[in-house]
Amino acid sequence: MTKDELEDIKKNNYALVAQPHTNYWFGISSNKLRNTYIEKFGDNFNLIIYSGADKDTDYYIFPFKKIKHLFKDEFYSKDAKTTTVGKRWVGNIKNHILKITNNPNHIDVKEYFGNPFFIKQHIFIKENEENDFEIENKRLEINVRINQSKFRKRVLDNFNSKCCLSEIHENDLLIASHIIPWADKKNIRLDPKNGLCLSVLYDKLFDKGYFTLTNELEVITIKNKLNLSSSLTQILNEIEGKKISIPKMKPKIEYLEYHRKKIFIEKDFQ
Questions:
Q1: How far apart are CA 70 and CA 185, in angstroms?
Q2: For residue 178, what are the β-bridge partners?
Q3: DSSP state letter for 218
Q4: What is the pLDDT at residue 98?
Q5: Using CA atoms, how far apart are residues 199 and 188, in angstroms rounded to an integer?
């Protein structure tokens, strides 16, 4: 979600900042929810919880009609701050489980994490400010984001939502890495067999060709490490020859061969 998209959708949706390191702890004002949003839009708005406009996928976006049953008067927070700011609900999202304090119910919200599907309904194009070409570009960009979200879900599911090299399972640190890059072959973009679940660091190393995989899914790292930092050399040496965790669907051999030939190169570091 870009800064411009966020500013657009905040006009008609309840958006608030919450951070991953606090399990997305949030507080929702009863007055603001009811008087600003429900009164104006009924159930036709979204509740958006995001960590920052600079992180495109680090957000949840919920259609309010899907979660409104959580916001009942008997579940108001009893914390001290409530007495000064008015009645409110507090809650958090941990391991994709949304829970409101004092409410015994909870919801699995994994499908709403980083999912641009609902944003698509809230990109407001002003007719007199953009020409047809600009409008079509914006629509194409939205569709790309939706497809990327689908690919991510399929790849993470394929690897049980764990990095296939380190077994890191924190969702906001996992990347659905393309074996053949997104831009290289359009017809296989959404194929989960063209994906690896990698943590952020390994994703970058794989994408830049510092390591690749054999057909037997064993790691091969670049040989020329003379000019690498000692820290990076150590990281690569630790995974050399390591076999990734076996997914439900193994990557296609032709995709791995492409990565070895086109992406994995013996870099000439100067």
A1: 44
A2: 195
A3: B
A4: 94
A5: 22
Residue type, 113: F
Closest CA to 195 of 175, 220, 225: 175
**DSSP E strands: which ranges in the chain?**
14-17, 26-29, 46-50, 59-63, 88-94, 97-100, 106-108, 174-178, 195-199, 211-213, 219-221
β-partners of residue 90 are 27
Q: What is the pLDDT of residues 113-169, one digit of tens each?
A: 876 666 555 444 444 445 555 555 555 554 555 556 778 889 999 999 999 999 999
Instruction: Please determine, for residue 59, whether its predicted confidence score (pLDDT) is greater than 90.
Output: no
pLDDT tens digits, one per residue of 189-205: 789 999 999 999 999 99
Give residue 100's Cα distance to chain centre.
Answer: 23
CA distance 16 to 37: 13
Would the pLDDT of 255 be above 60?
A: yes
- For residue 104, CA distances in Å to 74, 76, 98, 101, 107 come to 11, 13, 11, 8, 10
pLDDT tens, position by position, 68-124: 999 999 999 987 666 656 899 999 999 889 999 999 989 988 878 876 666 555 444
More confident call, 100 vs 59: 100
CA 225 to CA 170: how far, in whole Å? 30
Amino acid at 248: K
**Residue count of the chain:** 270
Q: 5 or 176, which is more confident?
A: 176
Signed CA dihedral, 215, 218, 222, 228: sign only:
positive
